[in-house]
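Hey, I was hoping to borrow your eyes for a little while. I've dropped the whole record in just underneath, so have a look:

——
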Amino acid sequence: MKTSIPRIPPPFYFVVGLTAMILLNLFVPIGHWLVFPWRYTGIILIVLGFSLAIGSGMFFRKFGTDPRPGTRAAVIVTNGPFKYTRNPMYLGYITMLIGTSTLLGTLSPLIIIPIFFLILHTQFVLREEKWMEDWFGGPYLEYKKKTPRWLI
């Protein structure tokens, strides 16, 4: 099966989403849902999401697999965060956006999260799962049965 590295990688979409959240907060700050000091819990979520995204990528490299979408996986990584979700790097990006929205404290940035999720899901996750099924067959299908795509 032929795959290709996407022209626009997930980190680019993340940066665009992050920028859009900040701009929405600055120019269209609809409703304040969190106030000081509760907004600062967003920092914890940002750090957790960053750790999950970067740590999962490092975990991939540890097993000799390139984390870039479209590159052929060397192995099915099922340990560490991959034991709990098939997409910990993407989950890390989403967690960072949730943390950013929490830190900003207004409702308008929240609209970016489902848009970003849909982009990740349709443009990356579904394609990558098809590639993994083609590359690894039965063992990957077994992993899919045991491990949720996200956390649920």
Q: What stands out?
A: The longest helix spans residues 112-136. Residues 34 and 105 are 5 Å apart (CA to CA). The chain has five helices and no strands.
